[in-house]
Amino acid sequence: MFTTTANPSARGVVSDKLAWLFAPRHPASPEIRSYLLAQLMGSMGAALMGSLCSILVLGAAFWKSGENIFAALIMVDLAISMFRLIEWNYGKRRAEIAGYRNITVSASLSIAWCTLQGVSAFIILSGDDPVLQVLSATLAMALIGPLCARNYAAPRFAILMVLLCDLPFAAGAVMSSEPWLSLILVLTPPFLLGVMQIIATLHDAMLDTLFAKEENHRLATHDSLTSLLNRQGMDEQLARFSPQHDRTMALLSLDLDGFKAINDTHGHGAGDRVLVEVARRIQDVVGEDDLVARMGGDEFMIILCNREVDEFRAIAVTLVNVIASELISIGPETSVGLRVSVGYACIPEDAGTTMELRLRADRALYDAKESGKGTCRRFGEKTEYDIGSIYSNLREAYI
Question: What is the spatial distance between Cα 117 and Cα 294, in angstroms, rounded to a whole number?
Answer without folding.
Answer: 57
